[in-house]
């Protein structure tokens, strides 16, 4: 594992947002969903592609709060421009579990 300096970590803007829309993203190379995440007034709605199809269905994602990086530059993924990186963790079987707050917080809340 490579160590980083605190200043490197401080550059990463982690925010909480609520998934407002989730749909299949058939144009992605690997199975994925296209998500629209609401980060509140200051940041607004952002799009993301998430490879979370093994554990989640689109309907159950609506209203779920997630932790995302919001200060990466936009990235073209097929026909969609991803505007944030929704975070998660790989299980031993390779499936991705979303990183979520264990209690509700306002959309746009920053990492403390």
TrEMBL record:
PROSITE patterns in alphabetical order: TRBD (PS50886)
One Pfam family per UniProt: tRNA_bind
Domain annotation TRNA-binding: ranges: 8-112
tRNA-binding is among the record's keywords: yes
RNA-binding among keywords: yes
SUPFAM superfamilies (alphabetical): Nucleic acid-binding proteins
UniProt keyword list: RNA-binding, tRNA-binding
Signal sequence bounds: none
Superkingdom of the source species: Bacteria
GO MF annotation: an example: tRNA binding
The protein, known as: tRNA-binding protein YgjH
The organism of origin for this protein: Halomonas elongata
Taxonomic placement: Bacteria, Pseudomonadati, Pseudomonadota, Gammaproteobacteria, Oceanospirillales
Gene: ygjH
């Amino acid at each position: 594992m490579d160590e980083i300096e605190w200043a490197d970590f401080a550059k990463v803007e982690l925010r909480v947002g609520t998934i407002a829309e989730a749909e299949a993203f058939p144009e992605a190379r690997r199975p994925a969903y296209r998500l629209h995440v609401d980060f509140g007034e200051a940041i607004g709605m952002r799009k993301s592609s998430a490879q979370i199809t093994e554990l989640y269905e689109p309907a159950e994602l609506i209203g779920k709060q997630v932790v995302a990086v919001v200060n990466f530059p936009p990235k073209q993924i097929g026909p969609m421009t991803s505007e944030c990186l929704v975070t998660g963790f790989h299980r031993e079987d390779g499936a991705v579990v979303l990183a979520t707050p264990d209690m509700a917080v306002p959309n746009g809340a920053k990492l403390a």
